[in-house]
Specification:
single chain; alpha+beta; Outer membrane efflux proteins (OEP); 4-stranded antiparallel β-sheet; two-stranded parallel ribbon; 12 helices; MdtP/NodT-like; TolC family protein; efflux transmembrane transporter activity
Length: 435
């Protein structure tokens, strides 16, 4: 009997506190928001300065440039001369160890390798081309990371604007719910209406949590690019300068010329073609054997005592004339030439497409009434007051609130897509035309 009473008590407590726990979980602020303690307020210029100073990927690529420059020094060095000397270890007739004088034998030689067919100059040219390649790879990494940084910067900003709209709408609905909960016990508000408003509130909070998670992901990516400690980054955006951006400010030929002359990935493709041609020339030169000049001295091991001689040595290109490497190097010219043409076609198409995208995004933005957002926000407050006064129905009230939310999200999305299109124009042209 006692066990049944205890069990019954547990069921009663569970039934009472379960709704409370569910409500507490739904109304609790997202964990992401509570972690935003240290805030780093950044303009775009200051963010780029931090990025240039602290990004480790850029630092590693700079070291790679230094490594390639060191190889240029190495390619300029001549082959070292070779010196050898021999002395008799044991005289079997006199039974002396390391005999000297007339009982001993000493020989020595000095040789020097001389590369023919301009191999050294060709090595230097290849090494210098590899330096240029590493520099273009650095600029391409810089271009890519800079685009990621700027895109994250504006994405975070406009997501934050959407989060503010959610926060404002949630606070307004929370006040309505709190007021209705008080009035429900007095019989002024129906249970159905309270539950419907609460459901809308919980839905907004769920969407708000998803939005904060999206902001947190962008924050994480931006912190990695900046190489800063875990802080909350608050972008400071000059919206006035953004409004003035115009995709028709620069003609298409100017954008294409900039892309052809400044795109680092195109420079990489061209440099690879150049290196393949230099390597083909070098491989053909390797088919020409090098010459070794030598001097020799022999104390008494030759036909006369104190023999001295000068000689020349050269490989005879009978079997190995470097045929395979020459053929491979020639094929690589075709490979890299095709890759270069493909990259040029890609660059041209990207510029055309992004100009088209930026023009469409800017046109959509320009067609929006500048006062539309502020008028909609003012109407939202009036609708809230009229609903509390019971001048409009619950369905009209919820429909307007949902329209307000969708309007804010759409406006922020339009503005972000427009700014991103301008950033893509900078990216595909390799030039900061739009800042």
């Amino acid at each position: 009997m006692v066990n049944r009473l205890v069990l019954s008590s547990y069921f009663v407590l569970f039934a009472v506190f379960l709704p409370v726990m569910v409500f507490a979980q739904l109304t609790a602020p997202p964990a992401t928001a509570t972690m935003q303690q240290d805030t780093l307020h950044l303009t775009l210029d200051s963010a780029e300065n931090i990025f240039l100073r602290q990004n480790l990927s850029l630092l590693a690529q700079r070291y790679n440039i230094d490594a390639q420059k060191a190889l240029v020094i190495q390619s300029k060095l001549y082959a070292n001369p070779n010196f050898n000397i021999e002395h008799g270890l044991y005289n079997t007739q006199t039974h002396k160890v390391f005999p000297f004088g007339s009982d001993g034998e000493t020989s020595a030689g000095l040789s020097q390798l001389v590369m023919l067919a301009g191999k050294r100059n060709k090595q230097i040219k290849i090494a210098r081309a590899n330096v240029r390649l590493s520099e273009f790879e650095f600029y391409d990494l810089l271009r890519t990371l800079k685009f990621t940084l700027r895109d994250d910067f504006y994405n975070i900003y406009y997501l934050q604007q959407s989060a503010k709209a959610y926060d404002e709408e949630i606070n307004s609905l929370q006040k309505v719910v709190d007021a209705f909960v008080e009035q429900k016990g007095k019989g002024y508000i129906s249970q159905k209406e309270v539950v419907r408003i609460q459901a809308q509130l919980y839905s907004l909070k769920s969407e708000y949590r998803d939005l904060l998670e999206q902001i947190a992901d962008q924050q994480s990516e931006m912190r990695l690019v900046l190489q800063v400690k875990p802080v909350y980054i608050d972008p400071l955006v000059d919206t006035t300068s953004l409004v003035a951006l115009n995709p028709r400010q620069y003609p298409l030929p100017a954008l294409l010329d900039s892309a052809y002359s400044r795109r680092s990935d195109l420079m990489i493709a061209r440099t690879n073609t150049e290196i393949s041609k230099l390597n083909y020339s070098y491989q053909k030169a390797l088919g020409v054997p090098d010459v070794t000049f030598n001097l020799a001295y022999d104390q008494q091991g030759s036909y006369i005592k104190n023999y001295t001689a000068a000689g020349v040595a050269i490989d005879l290109p009978v079997f190995n004339r470097n045929q395979g490497n020459i053929k491979s190097a020639k094929a690589m010219i075709d490979v890299n030439t095709a890759t270069q043409k493909s990259t040029e076609a890609t660059v041209e198409e990207q510029v055309y497409r992004v100009v088209e995208k930026a023009t469409a995004a800017d046109k959509l933005y320009r067609n929006i009434d500048a006062s539309f957002a502020s008028d909609f926000q003012r109407l939202m407050h009036e609708v809230l007051i009229n609903y509390q006064k019971r001048n409009i129905s619950m369905l009209d009230f919820l429909d307007f609130y949902d329209s307000y939310k969708q309007n804010v999200l759409q406006l922020n999305s339009i503005q972000y897509n427009r700014v991103r299109a301008f950033e893509e124009l900078n990216f595909v042209t390799g030039t900061n035309f739009f800042n």
